[in-house]
Structures are given as structure tokens and as C-alpha cells.
Design goal:
alpha/beta, 9-stranded mixed beta sheet, globular
Length: 221
């Protein structure tokens, strides 16, 4: 049975996120999400905690938003943490080596550390790129998502959607409607039949990242 999946989420394991695993799961229940991909910055600890706490029926994909030297890379269906700070080719090989899938988050958002377009095209041409994030809930301009979707179509790649939530009020802003799947390869087949839904979160919702960083300053209570 088809269900909505939010495929880009950050828990408090990310330094700029306020979202606790329990809050994330409550939001999933309230919104009726079928599943999530938890993709914290440079760690899978938050994803593993969500997986441990998840109720039956909620699919939890362990992922990571990895900071490579050239830009951010999404790895999903991971078993082990991928180290940050490597070159992009080392990063994608480390994801694939453990059976994971390689994606590019918010590829057309110039405000973030995105991979250069020529790198994205080379990854796609050589078969190292599995998907493009076509819709992201944290882009500042809707035009950036339209450009991302156009890029995905041009490269003939499946497209994901995710809220990129760093706070509970962002969860579910962007999702993809998918048929049932089990495992990475079935996921890609489902994604090829998926439908992107949602729009970016309002600008005020991004204040969660500011609050999270302030909370982590030395001396903050």
C-alpha cells in the first residue's frame, strides 16, 4: 500500500537540530507518515536511536548527510557511519561498499555546501549516483526545488523529497508518495514510481537551527 515518506531528517545528533527522536516519532504518527530516512550530519547515531524506538509499521531508513570535501552527499540504507572530510569519490565508494545508496541533497541551493554541478553530472554519468533530492523543505526559494527537479529529469535519476527538518514543526513539509518496498533495490524501483509532495517550510521554522547551536555554546544551560 502506498505511503508518504520524509527522506531527509535530522535529530539532535546533528549539531544544528533540536529534534529529539521521540518527538520525531510522535510527529510521524500525527502526520500519518509511512516511513522516514534519518540523515544526521556526519553520524548515524540519531538514525539508530529512531530505529530502536520506532513502532511497528513505521519504516526507518538509516542514513547520513556526509560532508565531503566537495560538498554534501546523502547516504541511505547504511550499516556503518561514513567519515566526513573525505573526497567525494571516497565518500560515495564508502556508501556503496556497505550496500548503501548515494544521493545528492538540495543540489540547486546556493546557500549550502552543495556538490558542484560538474561533479553531480560525472557521478551520474559513471553510475555512482542513485538519486537526486528533487524537493527539500529548507530551501529558501521554491525556484531551487524546481531547478532540482529539472536536474533530476535531465540526468534520468529517481528523485526523493524530504523536509530536511531540524525541528518538530518542520517534519513532513516535503515527502514522496511511494509504493511498498523492502531494501535498497526495491526502494529505487518504488522511487521511480513515486510522487513528490509538499513545499518548503516557512522561513521562521529554520530558527530551530539557530536555537540548537546556541544551546550547544559553552556555558549555555
Amino acid at each position: 500500500m502506498p505511503g508518504c515518506f520524509d527522506l531527509h531528517l535530522h535529530t539532535e545528533a546533528s549539531p544544528d537540530s533540536l529534534l529529539r527522536p521521540a518527538e520525531l516519532l510522535e510527529a510521524c504518527s500525527r502526520l500519518g507518515l509511512a516511513g522516514v530516512a534519518v540523515t544526521d550530519h556526519d553520524t548515524i547515531e540519531g538514525a539508530l536511536e529512531v530505529l530502536r524506538l520506532a513502532p511497528p509499521g513505521l519504516q526507518v531508513i538509516v542514513g547520513e548527510e556526509v560532508g565531503s570535501l566537495q560538498g554534501e552527499v546523502l547516504g541511505i540504507f547504511l550499516r556503518e557511519e561514513v567519515p566526513a572530510g573525505m573526497g567525494v569519490w571516497e565518500t560515495v565508494r564508502a556508501i556503496r561498499a556497505q550496500g548503501g545508496l548515494v544521493g545528492v541533497p538540495h543540489p540547486c541551493d546556493s546557500w549550502r555546501h552543495v556538490l558542484p554541478l560538474e561533479v553531480v553530472e560525472e557521478l551520474a554519468r559513471t553510475g555512482w549516483l542513485d538519486f537526486i533530492e528533487g524537493r527539500n523543505g529548507r530551501v529558501l526559494r521554491q525556484e531551487n526545488n524546481r531547478r532540482a527537479e529539472a536536474l533530476g529529469r535531465r540526468l534520468a535519476l529517481p528523485m526523493t523529497a524530504g523536509s530536511d527538518a531540524h525541528s518538530v514543526w518542520e517534519v513532513g513539509a516535503c515527502t514522496v508518495l511511494l509504493p511498498a518496498f523492502a531494501g535498497p533495490q526495491e526502494f529505487l524501483v518504488a522511487l521511480s514510481r513515486g510522487r513528490l509532495l509538499g513545499r518548503p517550510s516557512p522561513p521562521w521554522s529554520k530558527m530551530g537551527s539557530v536555537l540548537a547551536r546556541l544551546r550547544r555554546l559553552p556555558g549555555a544551560s
